[in-house]
Automatic annotation (TrEMBL):
It comes from Pichia membranifaciens. Pfam families: Cofilin_ADF (PF00241). InterPro entries: ADF-H, ADF-H/Gelsolin-like_dom_sf, GMF. GO terms for molecular function: actin binding; Arp2/3 complex binding. Gene3D superfamilies: Severin (3.40.20.10). Residues 55-190 form the ADF-H domain. One of its GO terms (cellular component) is actin cortical patch. Belongs to the actin-binding proteins ADF family. GMF subfamily. It comes from the Eukaryota. This is ADF-H domain-containing protein. One of its GO terms (biological process) is negative regulation of Arp2/3 complex-mediated actin nucleation.
Length: 190
């Protein structure tokens, strides 16, 4: 309704990849005046952010398969190690698996992290809750050391939403100092 009432010059100003959503929203709410567009604005901003993240970094199909396999692999209660994967963005700006580890504890993770470059870490951390239930949430950690170059920090910060969306982890944490790593256990087990 509103879109059709615009002149061709005004339509060019309003045309974005999100216009299909606007038109669908208007057709559903044809009786509602365009003032309800403000309710739709957060969804447009989210879509715009996702498009920007996708242009910053790509996730190849092999990496998607590795992520899916890791996410769907069950962890047994008798397991004493923490299955962990470290992902980095390569020079072609593609996310790739850098390392797969079986850690004994969180102190081992601090030793494995790169000193001067950010990365994303996935952990399948299993533990027993105080009520006796065994749970194994998928934990995502965004490692951004203070010593990393500003360009690398910006690249990873721009792609973090894309990674979170692709992984679908149960908990997301951020760390910038190795001293924070041992404290992650208490944060996860809250």
């Amino acid at each position: 309704m509103f879109y059709n009432a615009l002149s061709s010059r005004e339509r060019k100003m309003f045309w974005t990849p999100c216009d299909a959503y606007i038109i669908a929203y208007q057709s559903i709410n044809a009786a509602t005046p365009m003032t309800s567009f403000s309710l739709f604005k957060p969804q447009l901003q989210q879509h715009k952010h996702q498009l920007m993240s996708q242009s910053i970094c790509k996730i190849p199909s092999t990496t998607k398969q590795q992520l899916r396999k890791f996410r769907l692999t069950p962890i047994k209660q008798s397991t004493t190690t923490i299955p962990t994967q470290i992902y980095k963005i390569n020079k072609e700006q593609e996310l790739q698996l850098d390392e797969s580890l079986d850690l004994e504890n969180f102190d081992d993770l601090a030793e494995e992290l790169p000193d001067n470059s950010p990365c994303y870490i996935l952990m399948n951390y299993g533990y027993t809750k105080p009520d006796g239930r065994f749970v194994s949430p998928l934990i995502g950690i965004y490692w951004r050391p203070d010593t990393a170059r500003g360009e690398a920090k910006m690249l990873y910060a721009g792609a973090v939403e894309l990674f979170k969306k692709e992984v679908g982890c149960n908990m997301w944490l951020e760390c910038s100092d190795e001293d924070e790593i041992p404290d992650l256990k208490s944060e996860i087990e809250k």
